[in-house]
Design a protein that fits this description.
With 152 residues, this protein is mainly α. The protein contains 8 helices and no strands. It has a single domain, classed as AhpD-like (Up-down Bundle), CATH 1.20.1290.
Length: 152
Amino acid sequence: MLMRTRLPRSDVELVVLRTACNCASGYEWAQHVSLARKSGLHAEAIAAVPGWPADEGDSTLTGRQRMLLAATDDLYERRVVTTDNWEPLAHELDECELVELCMLVGHYEMLAMTLSSLGVEPDASSVDWLDQQDRETFDRLQSRATSRASDS
């Protein structure tokens, strides 16, 4: 799911970052911010991911990016992409890309659950490389994960 997709690399990284936020996975956030930048995703778009959808009217994200984020959230919250979000996506993505999108979210949710349950920490170099805003997001995600783990 990471390297061989029909979805453009920047779409993949956007979806992975949103999944990291939904699942409170600091590990995935730290690992994928640099990959997102390398894929061509702008720093402003990366910064908008944690606040989505509160910033829905913000022109930082393209229409395609907003559709991908809405579908990612649907899959996380409802385990299905709602008709309201699927129909516009079906005009934007081909059938293989639609399947990949669903599989991508599911794969990274599974990975987040596994990493969190096992207490796997990201490489220090991945965290050190983050700029201040991305580091603050990482810290918030780590805090949420710790809180979730102690709620049981």
